[in-house]
């Protein structure tokens, strides 16, 4: 019989990505990174970076499932697959986006999940932004670290625990985010394994910092500078950490922990407030 830990860790190599067919930053700004006037997206370069990310994942043993976005002309941020849902086994708790500029993504994702054998759930009246604000960690992946504040309503946490209940007794840990630049937990917290994670403590309030340190996870801090390079928005496949270009300081930290850093250019996606992790969802 396969354990919960094995099921979740195995899922880390099976990923959903959404092709950035209509990705752009020209119509709106919904986070501090987005500047439509001075930092528009070069769509050709974004597609090249996205393909490089996909190729890199597959080169290190990951399995990528691509959702096409040809019909998502009004939803340029749908490329950030991490926000689609939190997945546990074959059940997906769908996002309910805070900003109207992203709300249309939900139905597109819902269709994909159901067409691919997942059961979907999730309320539409309480803001929650998927794995952008919900990351599995803790012994045997028994903790869902859930960011609350900027994009996710804390009232969603109880419903997530109820709807995704699989009998394993996992715990949802609410984590209050206080820095507007780190508006999702996945730009400030990066599980490397079930008991080890990178994090930027300054993204969280003092009570949350205390609580996170007491959930059985070894937390390795990165600096404010490194967090600003999206060092915590990294994708882990086996012992490989795929991330946006950052400082040598982070590389040395990752190597000391027994992992291999792989840097790729994600500059076009950083313009919209995301990087490698934001562009993928563990399924």
From TrEMBL:
<dbReference type="GO" id="GO:0016990">
    <property type="term" value="F:arginine deiminase activity"/>
</dbReference>
<protein>
    <recommendedName>
        <fullName>Amidinotransferase</fullName>
    </recommendedName>
</protein>
<dbReference type="GO" id="GO:0019546">
    <property type="term" value="P:L-arginine deiminase pathway"/>
</dbReference>
<dbReference type="Pfam" id="PF19420">
    <property type="entry name" value="DDAH_eukar"/>
</dbReference>
């Amino acid at each position: 019989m396969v354990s919960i830990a094995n099921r979740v860790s195995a899922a880390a190599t099976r990923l959903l990505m959404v092709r950035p067919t209509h990705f752009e930053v020209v119509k709106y700004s919904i986070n501090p990174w987005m500047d439509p006037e001075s930092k528009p997206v070069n769509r050709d370069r974004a597609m090249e970076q996205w393909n490089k990310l996909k190729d890199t994942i597959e080169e290190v043993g990951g399995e990528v499932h691509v959702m096409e976005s040809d019909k998502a002309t009004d939803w340029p941020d749908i490329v950030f697959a991490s926000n689609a849902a939190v997945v546990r086994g074959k059940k997906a708790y769908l996002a309910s986006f805070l900003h109207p500029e992203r709300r249309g993504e939900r139905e597109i994702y819902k269709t994909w999940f159901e067409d691919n054998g997942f059961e979907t759930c999730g309320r539409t009246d309480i803001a929650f932004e998927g794995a952008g604000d919900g990351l599995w960690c803790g012994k045997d992946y028994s903790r869902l670290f859930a960011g609350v504040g900027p994009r996710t309503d804390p009232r969603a946490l109880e419903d997530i625990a109820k709807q995704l209940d699989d009998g394993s007794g996992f715990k949802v840990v609410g984590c209050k985010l206080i820095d507007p630049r780190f508006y999702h937990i996945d730009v400030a917290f990066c599980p490397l394994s079930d008991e080890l994670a990178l994090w930027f403590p300054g993204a969280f309030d003092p009570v949350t910092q205390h609580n996170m340190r007491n959930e059985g996870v070894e937390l390795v801090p990165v600096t404010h500078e490194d967090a600003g390079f999206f060092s915590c928005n990294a994708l882990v496949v086996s012992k490989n950490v795929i991330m946006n270009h950052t400082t040598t300081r982070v590389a040395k930290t990752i190597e000391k922990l027994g992992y291999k850093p792989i840097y790729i250019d994600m500059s076009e996606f950083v313009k919209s407030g995301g990087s490698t992790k934001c562009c993928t969802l563990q399924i």
